[in-house]
From TrEMBL, chains A, B:
It comes from the Bacteria. This is DNA-binding transcriptional regulator, MarR family. Residues 33-143 form the HTH marR-type domain. InterPro entries: ArsR-like_HTH, HTH_MarR-typ, MarR/SlyA-like, WH-like_DNA-bd_sf, WH_DNA-bd_sf.
Length: 163, 163
DNA sequence: TACATTTGCGTAAGTGCTTACGTAAATGGT
DNA sequence: ACCATTTACGTAAGCACTTACGCAAATGTA
């Protein structure tokens, strides 16, 4: 059994492979951070970079920018707050909102963190063999899914098989 | 805020995009199955197809074929057993092992399930615009990660930045 | 201005993977 | 034949996302 069955499956192996690949990045990144005593989690760098660029954002603005659900952001940000990387201030005009910013601690740590992320990017480039094809290909998938997702398309195609 | 920040991030957005894409497949597939009253979960089709091909396998053999950890298989298979799709028989020669097979119920349902999977594959082909580039590109990533994973490579690259 | 609707955020429960650890059965060396 | 090591499987805890639901604040409408 030395063949990778998911690869052998062709099209229908794609979704499993995406999950497997994504997880492999997440878990090795976690290990990487832990080895160096960094008290951050794998996906926090999205938030760091987002807040570095936009200064302050609300939960919904972040969810919108990252195309994630708002509870995903809430969970992420809560953990970052607990570690003291994110500050949260209630909006004066709209009391439902909280303006989120990078804390002083986050700004101080940022230059160091960026070294680790830079090394990660280099690793990524190696793995991608210095090419961006996969990024472009993913963008096509994302665009097509945006127009009609996997469920909708499956539904339509199902009619061909079940009259 | 109409730009997709993960895409705008370039290389460093890749891992987040893989996660997002993978999840989108998982959740829409779950919805798809639920809409049609199928009592199966998104990733069970890997097991169905694997056992269809190999008749009977142990947990470790499956983990090996799918390149997943053995607890992943145990969890999957336990749920499938609970729904009556998988039978488990203790190996006569090696009492640590269990030989897993598709149940009678699974074999009866298989032809119907395969229609739904076929429609899903067609959807996937649409999303991929009838091309296999992305599959080939993923295989390159998988191969390179197999040789040295993201953590190892990051570690090596880190030395360039931290003398 | 009163009231229904929308919006922002939060919590709960579910899914699926991982790593870490534990136990029992098989294997291997002397 | 014994004991240490390896292998197979299982369980527990953790992480990251989702959908579903709830509440309070803002908005829109008559």
């Amino acid at each position: 059994m030395d063949e990778d069955f998911l690869i052998a499956m062709g099209y229908s192996g794609l979704t499993g492979r995406l999950k497997r690949l994504s997880d492999s990045f997440i878990y090795t990144t976690k290990q990487y951070y832990r080895d160096h005593g960094l008290e951050i989690e794998p996906n926090w760098h999205m938030i760091f970079l987002l807040l570095k660029k936009h200064e302050k954002l609300t939960v919904m603005e972040m969810a919108d920018a990252l195309r994630l659900s708002h509870p995903a952001i809430v969970q992420l940000v809560n953990k970052m707050k607990k570690k003291g990387y994110v500050d949260s201030v209630r909006d004066k005009d709209d009391h439902r909102k909280f303006q989120l910013t990078l804390s002083r601690k986050a700004l101080e740590k940022l230059p160091e963190l960026e070294l680790y992320w830079e090394a990660g990017n280099d690793a990524l480039k190696e793995i991608m063999e210095q090419q961006t094809i996969i990024l472009d290909q993913l963008e096509i998938l994302e665009k097509n899914i945006g127009e009609a997702d996997f469920r909708e398309r499956s539904e339509r195609n199902l009619k061909k098989y079940m009259p």
